[in-house]
Amino acid sequence: FPLALQVKNKAPAEVQITAEQLLREAKERELELLPPPPQQKITDVEELNDYKLRKRKTFEDNIRKNRTVISNWIKYAQWEESLKEIQRARSIYERALDVDYRNVTLWLKYAEMEMKNRQVNHARNIWDRAITTLPRVNQFWYKYTYMEEMLGNVAGSRQVFERWMEWQPEEQAWHSYINFELRYKEVDRARSIYERYILFTVLVIVHPDVKNWIKYARFEEKHSYFAHARKVYERAVEFFGEEHMDEHLYVAFAKFEENQKEFERVRVIYKYALDRIPKQDAQNLFKNYTIFEKKFGDRRGIEDIIVSKRRFQYEEEVKANPHNYDAWFDYLRLVESDADAETVREVYERAIANVPPIQEKRHWKRYIYLWINYALYEELEAKASKRTRQVYQACIELLPHKKFTFAKMWLLYAQFEIRQKNLPLARRALGTSIGKCPKNKLFKGYIELELQLREFDRCRKLYEKFLEFAPENCTSWIKFAELETILGDIDRARAIYELAIGQPRLDMPEVLWKSYIDFEIEQEEYEKTRNLYRRLLQRTQHVKVWISFAQFELSAGREERLQRCRQIYEEANKAMRSCEEKEERVMLLESWRSFEEEFGTDATKERIDKLMPEKIKKRRKLQAEDGSDAGWEEYYDYIFPEDTANQPNLKLLAMAKLWKKQQQESEAAAVDPDKDIDESQT
Predict the structure, then answer these.
(1) Are strands 614-623 and 629-639 parallel, antiparallel or unpaired?
(2) In the UniProt record, does the keyword Membrane occur (predicted)?
(3) CA distance 305 to 286
(4) Is the CATH number 3.30.710 carried by domain 213-297?
């Protein structure tokens, strides 16, 4: 027997079952539907009483186990109600209320049972007890008033509403009372309820809502009491004042007046609200005002709306970033197009008050145009010359002249004084600018002014000051010399040019020398021109100077001009043999060959052809920035005849090229011998 109990196969089963799976299967089997109990047929009174006794015992046992579960009480009472045992059901509900009188569902089921069984007085008694015990449960009040109204007891329902209102309920309760009165055409009573509610919101609620006033006004409007409705809106506007303005109130007020065809009133309401409500809170107001003007306004009214909206946008931009000068420009352009002078001045003053925080010129370049536009507005639009002068002077005082200045500001101020026929002030302003912060543009503007006034002595003095300030400025030297040339003082002009080319440092010396040479050519001083070219060639051996010198000799207009020109080319070629820039020498030879082709003989042409270099392709090694190899680069080089004579390697290269050419010809002949025979016979 003990041997039979021994396990022969102790290996684990192939399918392992966990404790979790066992519990899950047990839970799933609990949910399986049990077969319903068999139907019991009651045939006599004794069986019925026995059935009732067993059911009541079950309900009582459940209640005894847990008295606080109200659902057991409700099921018990509903079962007694189904048996028409109203007294027993009533007794069960009373026992349940002793356990938990705060349970709303219990009161509702109790009252519904009484109403269902037409026990009206009992239902009233229950509702009275419910609203007395739990007055803040709105559902009891709604059910109670609805029951009285369904029974036709309007006075009783009104009385319940009045009791409810004494508890100062929420908004919906008041509107339910109003709708109740309106159902029975009691408009005066509804109005009095609205008045009481408005008074309640004013006295009790800290922040009353605008929508209650709007509902009151619409109630009056709906019943054609337009004067009363307008009075309600006016009282609301007065009550909320300017501290708690709401756009919804003004939109509703304006739409009411629009319905009454009072368009001027509508316009006044919208403008009043737009002037006082913050712009970010008045988007709906803007929208409705725009729609109104499009429907009933003229073009001017629509433009006013658009301008006000854009003005609000610009105000927001400049408020967010006061140093956004582009936004100020747009704002000022808008204001100038549609505003009075005082408003424009106010915006300009606000704009120029935003001085750049850093004294660097790049930060002031946009800002300075605010002052310029301000001055131009005062002069051209407002016609206020005194204020224009004050604007210019204030701007000049504001600028940090020791660090930088704006020449355009000084020049505009001087031009303004000239337009006012006040020449001494204009000269004083420009003189002050040159003394405080001399600039090329200021000198040029002052000189141009004196030139227009034909004050040549003043121009000479200004040019002297200018050249003392900037002796390297070639343009100033040239302009000064041109002025003396125009005035007919050739010696002064020549002396100015001599002083100019004698300066140790010049910004554009080639332009100065060219102007001096052109001046001498115009005066037909050819020897002096040649001397100038020689002096210039002592300073630079640039190929363009040689070519210009040769072309001058060609255009001098004398018999030996060709010889002189050819001689210049010869000198230039000899001088540029040591030049590292071979392209410049090639440029010279090209110019010389063009000259010989037009004016030379066959011998001179053959000679220049022999001087022309040979263009060859070469390769050179490239290096990157870090010193590593970057490959090879092909470039063109020029080999001049004298270079070939000096370098035997070049002769060897030429012979190699000739040999290669002969080899290619012989290979071609070997490929096609018949062709060679035919060619020989031919």
Answers:
(1) antiparallel
(2) no
(3) 8
(4) no
